[in-house]
UniProtKB/TrEMBL annotation, chains A, B, C:
Protein origin, superkingdom: Bacteria
Pfam families: DrsE_2
Name this protein carries in UniProt: Peroxiredoxin family protein
PANTHER family found in the cross-reference section: CONSERVED WITHIN P. AEROPHILUM, PEROXIREDOXIN FAMILY PROTEIN
Length: 159, 159, 159
């Protein structure tokens, strides 16, 4: 273990509130000089989707997944009290009132703080997501790269 | 890293079964002389709510959250097989039969073992929870305090 | 902390996709010479169930749990987009197309790589699961054994 502190988060969840928690911890850790990686896999990839409809060639099943999954951070639902999509609006109203930072801006902030945002290539394949559908300036890697980061640090979370 | 062993758990979930897992691990670690912190954030704060109705001034939205969220550990639902609230009763019947310890007593036990119970102030704000609505003898802090504990240990879990 | 790298995963979830993530990380870590333990607790025990109906003496409640919970890895549902059981079929079709490895084979692979698969005895009791209902060549232990493994390593995940 080196002297550099390191925080590595697997973001598996596609829930708005869980992704918020991941990015709040990541931004906090970056502010305290940790080297921080967020490895987005499965539904967590949705946090990295661009919100426009990118035209790419897809199979029927990939198109279905593409349509059913939220397109970008601000379209994600809540893990609790989602109320058919009304919950996120409630949370966002409350967040606005308390000057809390929306997820999409937490992601921007993470990029500015050099948090390494990684998209898991294996699950991109499975869900039919292509590189140009995801945000710019992210990395693409697999579980080996995740482990290489994780084994160097001690704050390792699966969210 | 110091010689003292340390376990730090983020309890994000408001599910009875997940909170049980968190407190069982915490109590186990405390018994093995770890310094243990449970940092309650988002729905995990509900585990710390007093079960009576505390009169505090709240906005309309805060009142709604307050009413919809479970008031205390024993009111929480299950992450699986909740069956509109019947699941928790089933689990509790089975727990009783096997002399397993209910969550509310696991929390007491944790306090007796000096597990540090922390309520995340940022999400208390968001959900409109006030200090006197939560259990006595807990701490109030933010993500910086969480990271300060987490970076000193290696058993770091997000539940 | 010893020089041997160690990855310890608590598999709490009974979701097919989360269990896949756990086993993909475990197999990756084993390939990189980590000593790996997966501690199956609560609904995560279902990943270890044999798919046949084993005749054992059970109470009424235990029988109910036994019937309602998925019997083995390939019967588990998804954490997102489960669509009353249609989601897992979609995912498995897509996995087949991409030559991704089904969960049941990821578990076999883990056993071949000497990943230590542990069933949590306390939650086996609660859910009424008996040793001969679970896969062969797994271990049976409690939270103390989990902590003994976890405190020696730094990649500690709760899934």
């Amino acid at each position: 273990m080196t002297d550099i502190k390191r925080t590595t988060i697997v973001l598996f969840s596609g829930d708005y509130d869980k992704a918020m928690a991941a990015y709040i911890i990541a931004n906090g850790a970056a502010a305290y000089d940790h080297e921080v990686t967020i490895f987005h896999t499965f539904w967590g990839l949705n946090a990295l989707r661009k919100d426009e409809d990118i035209q790419v060639k897809k199979s029927f099943m990939e198109k279905m997944f593409g349509k059913m999954m939220p397109r970008g951070a601000e379209k994600m639902g809540l893990s609790k009290m989602n109320f058919a999509g009304f919950g996120p609006k409630m949370i966002k109203d409350v967040m606005k009132k308390h000057n809390a930072i929306p997820l999409i801006n937490l992601i921007e902030m993470a990029q500015e703080q050099n948090v390494k945002l990684v998209a898991c290539t294996m699950t991109m394949d499975l869900l039919g997501l292509q590189q140009n559908e995801l945000l710019d300036n992210i990395e693409f890697a697999g579980v080996a790269a995740y482990l290489a980061d994780a084994e160097e640090g001690n704050v390792n979370l699966f969210i």
